[in-house]
Amino acid sequence: SFCNDLKRRGWEDFIREKTGLLLDAYFSASKIRWILDNLPEIRRKAEKGEVICGTIDSWLIWKLTGGKIHLTDYTNASRTMLFNIHKLTWDSELLELFKIPASMLPSVKASGEIYGYTASHSPLNPGIPIAAVLGDQQAALFGQACFDAGMLKNTYGTGCFLLLNTGEKLVSSEKLLTTIACDGSGKPTYALEGSVFIAGAAVQWLRDGLGLIKEEKDTEEAARKIEDTEGVYLVPAFAGLGAPYWDPLARGAILGINRGTRKEQIIRAALESIAYQVRDVIEAMKKEAKIKVEKLRVDG
């Protein structure tokens, strides 16, 4: 793939230093490059300034304003792998590396500004101000009022997404993502992000894969029947391991079982595996940011 080719050519550290992101096809840059490489007509129009692209928020703003405004915010721009999080601008060297015309990209503003107003033919009433734009996890950080450095939130779902506000301090990390969040007034600030791939999905696996429970809520009753797992551990690397290991080839394992192991031990080990993974990310955040974390705020 194009990303693997860039890795072989030694661009990984260069991209991480500028964007705070790992070089991965998950982010927008390589997707835009693929479209331009494989659809020659789009490439021709893009180079003439006749084609634009952006993240989902910029598409929504474009639609809501009747095609008048092409904007995004710092938090979403920082997830494209084209945005310089030091200078808070699209990076000319990255655009050249990915062969993406700058004219395609939206202008970038702080999260808490007026972006425009709904048009008369939008799905909403006309004249409504569009006054806030954030990426999903940054929005959760804001919603949990984590406005100051050292405040941390975790969103529990199929996976887990932890964000630590580092304030004005940009922390470069090889184990975590560095991203842009916003403070209480909607102005940009920095954060560290760590993703756990399998959290609630482990409980789904207990239900659908092993048939140990009928409903998710059954896990609590089973876990409370025993004091501990009696040495049973579950590594839920069903899709590799995310932060802070980033090992796509890791595979799941159940360790410590014996003939006396019951389903309650396995169920409790699955729940504890979520906590262990979250702790791994938090410890990595504390070590790399050198910030004291007082509280973990949660949602999901």
UniProtKB/TrEMBL annotation:
Residues 153-300 form the Carbohydrate kinase FGGY C-terminal domain. The keyword ATP-binding applies. The keyword Zinc-finger does not apply. GO terms for biological process: glycerol metabolic process. Keywords: ATP-binding, Kinase, Nucleotide-binding, Transferase. Residues 2-143 form the Carbohydrate kinase FGGY N-terminal domain. One of its GO terms (molecular function) is ATP binding. InterPro entries: ATPase_NBD, Carb_kinase_FGGY_CS, FGGY_C, FGGY_N. Pfam families: FGGY_C, FGGY_N. One of its GO terms (cellular component) is cytosol. Gene3D superfamilies: 3.30.420.40. SUPFAM superfamilies: Actin-like ATPase domain (SSF53067). Belongs to the FGGY kinase family. This is ATP:glycerol 3-phosphotransferase.
